């Protein structure tokens, strides 16, 4: 039987510099709390037990762990670290929870959320393959920096980790540093942690001191080099948190891209992890997709669209600069450029909502068109009906909202005002510039405008008169 894996996550710190008064482990990123990201990273290691060392505001963290879906995949036990006396002390607090646990213990931090699941899996495989007693994840970063330096011997073997604050000037020049993630044989870990002392510049119990003990005992100690140092990023400040969010977004977009979503300029887009996009959709630059939005196959989203909690049907075309919220866009429909589709809108198939058109709380059935400069609020538009440029549904009288019902195959002439509540029958025609205040029967023509008058030669006479005067 392969040996068991146990995880210990140090999470006692407070997130003061993140602007809050809650445990740092609960600081939120676009993909969940820091602790959730760490738990998801550790999931493929299938730990038999995951021990979370809690401290400041432990009740908040424990409450979160009790309900977080990321925690549901772990068998979690929390242990309390009363005072933060150092990373070694934090692990000492976890020892009682490790009694009887034989195998490999992974030690990591709640504020280092970017280790990829596959990296951690390779790390554990490497540790086992090398038959190490202790392996840490290391990476290269140029000095100056505050990381613990990996000190190697004449045959390149790892001797110890020296904290930046305890380094000699020569040691400070070493670019290989400790990420803070370790795999340790359980039988070595317990006595090593028990024997830690705090005789160093910070008066702390350094977890890193177990490395020197292992090498002095002649145990196998290795460093697993990280290919992408970004994975080792820690979160102390709001700027670190912003960096983590950028990396998470980049990874999510790359996952979408490798699933077959076509991006014109991936790095300019902002897409929530709750959004689903089918392969074959094309996403233009500066597109923002939020909430429960779903984008079907072969959709084209031109640049700068903002879509919130909406469903975009197959082969729909959302043109430049459109905003869509809480709405449904049917197959092969087109919206924009510069359209505003507000909550409660349902567009059927082959519908066109064109430039400078605002739609709110309305249903446009298959084939309906409102191509230019229109406001449709609280209305129903039947199949194949054409709404002329400048049409306005007057849905608000200053007190109440009222509905406009327009049948199928209707032609609404340009610049008409439809004063709600009003019903326009199937197949009818509204003359351009009409103000419609009464229901229009099916197949009728409705005119609601002043009659045109012609005064022959009037303009010429005026011209002649005015030009004589000067
Ligand atoms: C630690 C390592 C250093 C490494 C660096 C990587 C030690 C002595 N040093 O330094 O070699 O390069 O991480 O980021 O381990 N924590 C507790 N309880 C404590 C102390 C810390 O839970 O008593 C938690 C903190 O909340 C934090 C993490 O452990 O999440 C790391 O602690 P921190 O003091 O920041 O370690 P570093 O000084 O950065
Ligand atoms: Ca730190």
The CATH topology name of the largest domain reads: Spore Coat Polysaccharide Biosynthesis Protein SpsA, Chain A
Task: Give the strand tally.
Answer: 39
Shape: elongated
| End-to-end Cα distance | 110 Å
The percentage helix is: 10-25%
The chain-level structural class is: alpha/beta
Radius of gyration: 33 Å
- Could you tell me the mean pLDDT? 97
Instruction: Tell me the CATH architecture of the largest domain.
Output: Alpha-Beta Complex
How many helices does DSSP assign?
9
Low-confidence stretches: none
CATH class membership of the largest domain: Alpha Beta
Give a nutshell description of this structure.
The protein has about 475 residues and is α/β, with parallel strands linked by helices.
What secondary-structure arrangement, pairings included, does this model have?
Blueprint (H helix, E strand, L loop, with lengths): L3 E8 L16 E2 L2 E2 H9 L6 E6 L3 H10 L1 H4 L3 E5 L6 H8 L8 E7 L7 H13 L4 E7 L8 E4 L5 E5 L13 E10 H9 L14 H8 L4 E5 L12 H21 L3 E2 L6 E2 L4 E2 L4 E2 L4 E3 L3 E2 L4 E2 L4 E3 L2 E2 L4 E2 L4 E3 L2 E2 L4 E2 L4 E2 L4 E2 L4 E9 L2 E2 L4 E9 L1 E3 L4 E2 L4 E3 L9 E3 L4 E2 L4 E3 L2 E3 L4 E2 L4 E2 L8 E2 L11 H12 L1
Parallel strand pairs: 1-4, 1-6, 4-5, 7-11, 12-15, 13-16, 14-17, 15-18, 16-19, 17-20, 18-21, 19-22, 20-23, 21-24, 22-25, 23-26, 24-27, 25-27, 26-28, 27-29, 28-30, 29-31, 30-33, 31-34, 32-35, 33-36, 34-37, 35-38, 37-39
Antiparallel strand pairs: 2-3, 6-10, 7-10, 8-9
The structure holds uridine-diphosphate-N-acetylglucosamine (UD1) and calcium ion.
Uridine-diphosphate-N-acetylglucosamine binds next to helix 4 and strand 10.
